[in-house]
């Protein structure tokens, strides 16, 4: 996607020393690695990337930063090292040049170079040989990385050249839809497929809850990953209302803690309503974190309903029965909580539903009673059995719909039986080598690992600017194909309040739900400021944001 500076741009702002420093660090990092998300994994790599940053690290310097207990360093670690190590001075280079320029004419001739190379010590020769070997290794690694990148066919380049650091107004033309990537790349090779359903749910505080998933890759393989809203409508001409909600998946590896998790990739290429990623994953276990910005799934004003939809009525014989509308809603709920799509509810799937609606678990004993009284197949609850279970609960309360509405509202329904505060989705995983497995693992709101992965995805691939009057408060702006996201980094030792103004933006919707707002960022922390999407994806949208510090009172 191409991004152009808008005619409404607020003008170019001179880069500060801090911005220039980080821009140079990133440029040096990307000469060695394909992405600033990549980690330094050896002392050899640390030496190479420091040399690219204009440092000349001695063995003692390398040993100081790469101890026997060091396993990896990330981009932020690298920036701190560069900040603390003295760059090679020009006069040092000139002194070395003059030693080689024997006749002092300002040039190093072939004969002068020959004299130096044939008279230097063995140690210096080893240094030169090591340097040549490092260059060869770097060239081979770059060729291998380029070849792998072509094979992986990422939707976007992993690290695009930085745009103007000062410009905050951009016009985003509507990009054409990409064709769906071919998942039968090799003739005679079958792609192993697994899928899992889920849903985003809005909480009372405006937060968004979703299941997370565990993906197990048995061996290094090419993987094609997609997520999309799940259409529950039976009418082709009228799809479900949430089909325009944006969806994405972040893939992280490591333990279930913020400190140990590593962002591996995230879906950002679009194919109609699908969000896709295709690349190589090493053998191992990964956590899949579904994500939506909240720009299109947000709390709505609850208009008072004079007469809510009837859920239960009585038949001609006086018996209680579920109404047709309520059965339709229950059928859609069944479709959402049937995570593996086999048409039946396992105990695990039913418990995700119970945790969502009542906060409780159904134990094995209660499940056995359930199977005895309601329609089951293969020891799992059928759709008919799910209806019977809800009818029993309504009958136990004499037809009082109060508890039924509690369940429906927890699943995102309003009193008109419209699902307005939830977005069901479907995750598909195609694996070229071996069968991947996908399992639901938790139901959490504001997952700390997702928040960390989101921040890293923004800061590693974004423009950065400092706020006027406070060079230690940085704003990172990520511009993807269909989303703009910002992170504010407060490097000071005190809380700062940032005023954010989007009033000059056009055809834009902010995840904050307003054009002007303030963000409090605690000392020495980073915080996602906002996400921005186009209101109408078929029209151009102009993002123009002005951030400023609110002075302390």
Tell me about this structure:
The structure is a single chain. With 553 residues, the protein is α+β, with helices and mostly antiparallel strands. The protein folds into five domains: 17-88, Recoverin, domain 1 (Orthogonal Bundle); 100-150; 192-299 and 424-452, Jelly Rolls (Sandwich); 313-420, Orthogonal Bundle (Recoverin, domain 1); 462-550, Immunoglobulin-like (Sandwich), CATH 2.60.40. Helix content is 30%, strand content 27%. It has 13 helices and 25 strands. The strands form six sheets. Strands 3, 4, 5, 6, 7, 8, 9, 10, 15 and 16 form a ten-stranded antiparallel beta sheet that branches. Strand 13 and strand 14 form a beta hairpin. Helix 1 packs across helix 2 (43-52) and helix 1 (17-32) packs across helix 4. The longest helix is centred in the first third of the chain and has 31 residues, at 122-152. It is elongated, with a radius of gyration of 29 Å. Residues 1-15, 146-167 and 175-185 have low confidence and may be disordered.
